[in-house]
Amino acid sequence: MKIKSNIATSENGFIFNPATGDSFSGNAIAATLLLAMKSGKTEQEIKQDILDRYDVKADQLNRDWEDWMLQLKEANLLEIDA
Amino acid sequence: MEKLPYEKPYIKKLHAGVMNKFGTRSGVQPVKSIDGVLVKTLIENYGSPVFVLSEKQIRKNYRSAYRAFSTRYPKVQFAWSYKTNYLNAVCQVFHQEGSWAEVVSGFEYEKAVGNGVPGNKIIFNGPGKSNDELKTAIKNDSLIHIDHFEELNQLLILSQELTGKPRVAIRVNMDTGVYPLWDRFGFNYENGEAWTALSKVIDSGKLHLAGLHCHIGTYMLTTDAYGIAANKLCDLAMNCQTQLNHKIEYIDMGGGFPSTNTLKGAYLPGQDTVPSVDDFAEVITSTLLNFGFANEDLPMLILESGRVLIDDAGYLLGTIIANKRLSTGKRALIVDFGVNVLFTSFWYDHQVSPAQDFMPHNENMVIYGPLCMNIDVIREGINLPLLNPGDQVVVHKVGAYNMTQWMQFITLRPAVVLIDEQQRPHLIRSNETLGYIEEPEFIPIHLKANK
Predict the structure, then answer these.
(1) Which Pfam families does this UniProt record tie to the protein (chain A) (predicted)?
(2) SS3 sequence, chain B?
């Protein structure tokens, strides 16, 4: 679970992959998650941070995390594990 | 510190290209209440899913449609199409407004009688009427619309022993320029069958030919077809008067006017494409008025509209069960109402609105019902904001046909609530129970469970 290092993200949710030319827009939570993932935080740290700041229960966040990973994979933004 | 509102994380690929000529989606609002009653409260009190009908909207639709015809033509009568929605409370709203009843089976006939409709204000249509049903209709002086020669002979036999004459009409089918032709009901105009049938009725001396009836199709998108149909019925009526010396008292143009729902596969939304009731009224009444009847001989105009009078007065409220992502990456939403309850999702792309505030991001998704059946698809593709399990949605324009064609299949049918003009909700059909479904069942002794 690591974002590719060359991916550019902005604070307001714009994502650019210079290798493919693809660009994406994300919602506020997506932008927060991407920035946190790029900063090198662990999954647990990121989730705890979201739980502290946002009105969401842990089980909902865990379910959404799975979906989030699928989206990133689908968008070809994740580093592929060797 | 108050926490920030949460929504699912979501990214969308951006595509460079020509702008959509319709611009971006805007102005979508959550639908939190219906006629002043909160969606949340309705679901709390009556369960989810639940059908909700607006009495105010039904009456508004009726009055505006009646006005469209009555301001153009001197003698107009509406007859409520029972099969569109025969919940008794709904029928009573239409009867209070002045509608007769239009029924197509013995079951519906009994419902109309039970609703207090006088026999002579019940129109009995349909291709399948039993001897007993016809006898009842004759006894009550109802208007029997004859569908085929077998029925005509059946009536002639039944009328042998009568002193009075049963009042009948001939259902006529015809080419109105809309294909495929609806030629399975009634007698054909072009090949002379209709003329033969009406001559036979008049010559018999046993039946009173009161009217001529047609119903040229359903969800008709062209007004011209009604002009052609009215013209052909007027032609039959005029020939009846001049050649057989018999005056036709009424012309029944049936129904078939579309609601503003969007048909599946349509490019533009229904509300931008369907003609209004005024458009239909203009074509039909001007044909009748200009045909050449003397003023005192103008036949009464009967209309049997259903869908257009109630579709937009009905809502289905439901709850999100789950989100899913399909193998293609497309999002799927599972809701707690299926095609067994929302039958019209086979015909229409129903508008679905969230019932609570939402974030501005939309995603294209498919909406599935809760049935373990591949056909259970409510919308194949709809742009909706991200919704969470437990969130509520409102499906629009579901008042016609759903509360009659719904099936008890896999799940039980939900409650129906009518909100009156004073914004008070009334339960008009309770949700089904296992006991209700099993009540007519019997188990042979050797199959009873050992307890």
Answers:
(1) PqqD (PF05402)
(2) CCCECCCCCCEEEECCCCCCCCCCCCCCCCCCEECCEEHHHHHHHHCCCEEEEEHHHHHHHHHHHHHHHHCCCCCEEEEEEHHHCCCHHHHHHHHHHCCEEEECCHHHHHHHHHCCCCHHHEEECCCCCCHHHHHHHHHCCCEEEECCHHHHHHHHHHHHHCCCCCEEEEEEECCCCCCCCCCCCCEECCCCHHHHHHHHHHHHCCCEEEEEECCCCCCCCCCHHHHHHHHHHHHHHHHHHHHCCCCCCEEECCCCCCCCCCECCCCCCHHHHCCCHHHHHHHHHHHHHHCCCCHHHCCEEEECCCHHHHHHHEEEEEEEEEEEECCCCCEEEEECCCCCCCHHHHCECCCEEECCCCCCCEEEEEEECCCCCCCCEEEEEEEEECCCCCCEEEEECCCCCHHHHCCCECECCCEEEEECCCCCEEEEECCCCHHHHHCCCCCCHHHCCCC
Distance CA B131, CA B433 (A): 35
B197 and B235 fall within a common domain: yes
Contact A60, A41 (CB under 8 A): no
- With contacts defined as CB-CB under 8 Å, which chain B residues touch A27? 7-10, 359, 361, 386
In sequence order, what are the beta bridge partners of B211? B169, B250
One domain for residues B142 and B178 = yes
Instruction: Examine the domain organization and report whether B267 and B122 are in the same domain.
Output: yes
Sequence-distant (≥ 6) Cβ neighbours of residue B255 within 8 angstroms: B81, B215, B218, B303, B304, B305, B306, B307, B308
Is B390 an interface residue toward A (CB < 8 Å)? no
Tell me, yes or no, whether B106 lies in a domain: yes
pLDDT over 80 at B259, yes or no: yes
User: What 8-state DSSP symbol labels residue A57?
Assistant: -
Chain B nearest C-alpha distance from A82 (Å): 24
The model's pTM is 0.89
Nearest to B8 among A53, A67, A74 (CB): A67
- Is the CB of A24 less than 8 angstroms away from the CB of B13? yes
Does a structural domain hold residue B450? no
Report pLDDT digits (tens) over B261-288. 999 888 888 888 899 999 999 999 999 9
Q: By C-alpha distance, which of B25, B113, B58 is closest to B309?
A: B58
Q: Is residue B321 part of a domain?
A: yes
| Number of domains comprising chain B | 2
**Which A positions 42-71 lie with beta carbon below 8 A of chain B?**
50, 53-56, 60, 63-64, 67-68, 70-71
ipTM of the complex: 0.91
CB contact under 8 Å between A26 and B323, yes or no, is: no
Predicted confidence band of residue B89 (pLDDT cuts 50, 70, 90): very high
- Token pair in block for residue B14: 């951006």
